[in-house]
Amino acid sequence: MSSQDIPEENLPAAQDTGHGALDVADEKNPFADPGVPPHEPRIQDIDERAAKRSERAVALLFTVSMLATIGFIAAFVTIPVHKTVYIFPLGHIGALNFALGVTLGVALFCIGAGAVHWGRTLMSDHELVQERHPIEAPADVRAQVFEDFRQGAKESQLGRRKLIRNTMFGAMAMVPLSGVVLLRDLGPLPEDKLRHTLWRKGKLIVNMNTNEPLRPSDVAVGSLTFAKPEGLEEHDHGFQNEIAKAALMLVRIEPEDIKDKRELEWSHEGIVAYSKICTHVGCPISLYEQQTHHVLCPCHQSTFDLADGARVIFGPAGHPLPQLRIGVNDEGYLEALGDFEEPVGPAFWERG
Predict the structure, then answer these.
(1) Does 25 fall in a domain?
(2) Residue 279's CATH number
(3) What is the pTM of this model?
(4) What are phi and psi of 207, to 5 degrees?
C-alpha cells in the first residue's frame, strides 16, 4: 500500500527539527533530516585526571617542538657543510641537510599534533547548527559572534590550562628562529668590507688603459681618466670584486672653477678624484661634459657636478660620489692619501 492509499489524517506528522528541516519524509520533503546525534561526553569531560593527562600530552608535544627548534639551530652551527652520513635506504646524504630537515619537521609536526590533540580532547566538542544568513550581518548577529568568540575562548580553557598555553606560546615563538638562522647561510657576513677599498695612503694611482702610474701632467684640463690602485691586475683572483669598489675617475678642472672648499683641498692642482661607481645602483660612470663639469651615469641618467663636490643635480642617485684625497709623492707620481671617506656605490642599511 502506498502513502496515497493512506488517509491523510493517519499519516505521521512532519516535525521540525529546529533548524529548518523535517525529521520525517513526506511527498514535499522526500529526504528526512536525521539531525545532529546526541552529544556523548568524552572521558576528559567527566574525569579531571584524564583531562590532566591530555594537558600533559599536549604540553609535551609543544616542549618537544621547542627542543627540536633548539636542535635545528645547534645542527646549523655545529655540523660541517660537507659532512655526509649513510641513511638507509637513501644512501649517503648531507648530514647538515638531514639534521635540519628532521629537526624542523619535528618542530612543526609537534605544534600541529599538539593543537589537534588539544582540540579533540579538551576544547568543547558540541556540534552547533545554524541557518545560513545574508552576508551583511545585522547588529544582533555581530554581537552574537563576539559573544560566541568569548564563549569559545572560555571553553578552550586557554586561561585555565596554563601549562598548555605557556608551552604553546613557547613553541610558536621559537619555530620562526629556524628561518632567522637560515638567513646566516646566505653568505659570509660583510662586516666592514663595504666600507673599505684597496686605496691606502701612499698607493699610486695607475692608468686603467696603460697600466702605468699617473703624473699630474698626464691629466689634461677637461679630460676624463680612469684609474685603479697600484698592484691590482686584471689576472688577479677577485679582480672584479675589488675594482667594483676601487674604480676611480680623475678630472682636471681649473682651480678657480671648483666651488666646494673641501674638494679643492683634496685635489692636486685642480685634479679631482672621485669614485666611478654610481651611487644609485652601482653602474660605472663614463660620460663627462667638459663645459659644465658634469658626469652622467648611462644607466639611469643620474648626473653629478664634479666642480661642486660631485653632488647630485639630476636623476635617482641618493648621494654624491665619494671623493678620494690625492697628492704627489717624491717621484712626482699621483698617489692616494687614504681611502674613500664613505662607502662607494649604492646606499645600504648600515650607512649613516
Answers:
(1) no
(2) 2.102.10.10
(3) 0.51
(4) -65, 130
In a domain, 38, yes or no: no
Same domain, 129 and 209: no
Segments forming the whole domain that contains residue 250: 193-336
- Looking at the structure, do residues 173 and 249 belong to the same domain, yes or no? no
Are both 223 and 182 inside the same structural domain? no
51 and 176 both lie in a single domain: yes
Domain count of the fold of the chain: 2
Q: What is the pLDDT of residues 225-280, one digit of tens each?
A: 999 999 998 888 888 888 989 999 999 999 999 999 999 999 999 999 999 999 99
Regarding whether 199 and 106 lie in a shared domain, the answer is no
Residue-averaged pLDDT of the chain: 85
Looking at the structure, tell me whether residues 129 and 199 fall in a common domain: no
Q: What is the CA radius of gyration of the chain?
A: 38
Whether 274 and 309 share a structural domain: yes
Q: Are residues 198 and 146 in the same domain?
A: no
pLDDT band for 350, please (50, 70, 90 cuts).
Answer: low
Phi and psi angles of residue 340, each rounded to the nearest 5 degrees, phi first: -60, 145
What's the rounded Cα separation, in Å, for the pair 267 and 251?
Answer: 10
CA–CA distance, 209 with 226 (Å, rounded to integer):
8
Q: Is residue 33 part of a domain?
A: no
Q: Quickly state the pLDDT bin for 20 (edges 50, 70, 90).
A: very low
